[in-house]
Amino acid sequence: MKKLLSLSLIVILTLTSCLYAETPEVTKIRWARANSGNVLVTLAQNNGYLKEYGLEVIEMPLNSTNDALTALSTKQVDVTSNNGTNNPLQFMAAGSDFTIVGGYMLKGMYIVAKKGTGWKGIGDLVGKKLATSKSQTWVTGPLLAAGYSLDDVIWLTYSTNSDRLAAVIAGEADYACLSGDLLFRVGNLKDVIEIVAWADDLMPDYGCCRMNMHTDFVKANPVTVKLLLKALIRAEQYLRANPDESVKILAKELNASEEFVAAYLKNPNYIPSVDPVKHSIKATWDIMMKTGFLSPEAKNYDLDSHINIELYKAALDELVAERRDEDPEFYDGRLEFFKAHNL
After folding, report:
1. Count of CB atoms situated within 10 Å of the CB of 158
2. What does the alpha-carbon distance between residue 52 and residue 73 come to, in Å, rounded to a whole number?
3. CA distance linking residue 93 with residue 64, whole number of Å
4. Are 230 and 323 within 8 A, CB to CB?
5. In terms of DSSP bridges, do strands 105-107 and 271-272 run parallel, antiparallel, or are they unpaired?
6. Are 198 and 107 in contact (CB under 8 A)?
7. End-to-end Cα spacing for the chain
8. What are the residues whose beta carbons fall under 8 Å from the beta carbon of 68, sequence distance 6 or more?
9. Do the Cβ atoms of 279 and 342 come closer than 8 Å?
10. For residue 221, which of 29, 91, 57 has the smallest C-alpha distance?
11. How far apart are CA 142 and CA 254, in angstroms?
12. What is the DSSP pairing of strand 79-80 with strand 193-198?
């Protein structure tokens, strides 16, 4: 009799749990995928977090930033995450109705030079040839803050990171700004090239790549967005707790060597984070206004209404209530980080 009662209780609890489980408004999410992929999406898929929340991410190859953001603007995709922060903000200022709901890369870019060049500070760039765009706010912001003008640097534009690195090797440029996916190659050139500064040294927690959605999608599907963020936060926790296994999973997904993936994924200066970092987004916007990369009319743009921190906070709060005991240091740290970078 007791056994039957116990079984009945289990059935009731299971049915109650299913009854009150949140149902996403839409289950399929179209994600613009760059060649480098998104490790948090990969881990959320591989570990079953997305499936647990009734979601399926469909990754659509769009390596060009312009193509990805245009596809988001025209609602051909639902999410972009590998296209920096400046570019989405430019699209938004020009009329694209995006809302930033989270992030992907928090930091990970860096400056290289010929070995032995050294680094004393942002003033080292004055009068030198720098292979990057003037829109690189983690460089231009600190330059302006130090009292320099953008004209004090010679800016060289190249189409790819590989071209920028090659320019330094060939002596065409004194410095180059590069992204994490070249860390393996840079490491193999340590007798020729050195990393002289990390972007985070110049502009802490600058928010390298934001997670953008069309505003209509966010308004119509808040539960879907919140559940997606929960899956990604759990992936972030897994990545930090299991770096070696994460390298293996991503290497398999990208069909790349584990050495190549480990060069950036295990680098302490390369940090993915789902947090929106609202303060960093607004700082980037302000720098872009000062440097002329946004039209004068953009000064009246209501940026706050296009940064949704509420859904991320709701996702984080729920995970703290449900899973804090699994990794108290991670979840407590995320709460403190959110408070410092968004409120």
Report:
1. 17
2. 29
3. 20
4. no
5. antiparallel
6. yes
7. 55
8. 32, 34, 62, 77, 80, 82, 83
9. yes
10. 29
11. 35
12. unpaired
Tell me the C-alpha distance between 256 and 254, whole Å: 5
Pairwise CA distance, residues 47 & 52, whole Å? 9
* Structural domains of the chain sorted by starting position, each given as residue range(s) with its CATH number in brackets: 25-106+208-342 (3.40.190.10), 110-202 (3.40.190.10)
Tokens of 55: 């979601």
Quick: pLDDT tens for 131-159: 999 999 999 999 999 999 999 999 999 98
Q: pLDDT tens across 218-276, in order?
A: 999 999 999 999 999 999 999 999 999 999 999 999 999 999 999 999 999 999 999 99
* Residue 167: partners with Cβ closer than 8 Å, 6 or more residues away: 131, 156, 158, 173, 176
Closest CA to 224 of 23, 60, 44: 23
Amino acid code (one letter) for 252: K
